[in-house]
Amino acid sequence: MADVEFDEVWKQFASQTAAAVQGLSLAIPDRELLVLLGPSGCGKTTALRMLAGLEEPDRGDIRIGGKSVVGLEPKDRDVALVFQSYALYPHLSAQDNIGYPLKVRNLSRQDQQDKVKRVAELLGIGHLLPRRPAQLSGGEQQRVALARAIVREPRVFLMDEPLSNLDAKLRVHTRTELKTLQRDLGTTMVFVTHDQAEAMSLANRIAVLNAGELQQIGTPDEVYDRPANVFVAEFIGSPPMNLLDASRDGDALVVAGGWRIPAPGAATARNGTVRVGLRPEGITIDPDGQAAEVVAVEPFGSEVIIDVRVGDQHLKIRAAPDVRPEPGSNVGLRADPGAVRLFDRSTGVAVR
Amino acid sequence: MTATTIGDQLAGPAVSAPPPRPKARAGPVEWIIVHIAFVAISAFFLVPFLWLLSAAFDGKASAYLQLPVEPTIMNFVRIFTEHDFAHVLANSVFVAVATMILVVFSVSLAGYSLSRLDLRRKDWITYAVLLLQTMPISATMVPIYGLARQLGLRNSYLGLILIHAAIELPFLIWLMKGFFDSIPRHLEEAAWLDGRSKLRALYEIVLPLARPGLGIAAGLAFLSAWAEVLMVVILIDQDNLKTVPLAFYEAMRTQGGYTEVQFGVIAAMAVIYLLPVMVVFFAARRLMVRGLMSSTRGL
Question: Pick from A32, A162, A279, B52: most CB atoms within 10 A?
Answer without folding.
Answer: A162
